[in-house]
Write a structure and sequence with these properties.
Shape: globular
Number of helices: 3
Largest sheet: 4 strands, antiparallel
Structural class: alpha+beta
Length: about 120
């Protein structure tokens, strides 16, 4: 909904949500917080990313149980993007994060969101 986007100074608070039972339930395919194991969160100026494993069946058969999800603001709306590999050829932590970051950048670019330079 409009007005749900987070400000850059709220990234830490958003990332902290995923350490709570309700935050893990939000990540779950079934809403069961016990199915979720948060493996990593990353906070940037423009997005919060979370890597987690979901013990529930994936939304599409044949996907790996680990998912990378990004939360970003587009205008006034909180927007999410998700990445999963195939169970037979799963992404490792670095591959999944790189792909998620590429998708986030593409979505931001397509929506004319100014990019915050990163150190690299």
């Amino acid at each position: 909904a409009s007005g749900t986007a987070f400000a850059p100074d709220e990234t830490q608070a958003l990332a902290a949500v995923f350490t709570t039972a309700s935050g893990r339930a939000l990540l779950s395919q079934t809403g069961a917080q016990g199915d979720i194991t948060v493996q990593e969160t990353d906070m940037g100026q423009d997005a919060v990313t979370v890597r987690f494993a979901d013990a529930a069946a994936p939304p599409v058969a044949g996907l790996q149980s680990v998912e990378w999800r990004g939360f970003l603001g587009l205008e006034t709306r909180l927007t999410t993007v998700a990445v999963r590999g195939l169970a037979q050829t799963p992404y490792d932590a670095e591959e999944g994060q790189r792909l998620l970051e590429a998708v986030i950048t593409a979505v931001q670019t397509a929506n004319d969101v100014p990019q915050t330079p990163t150190d690299g």
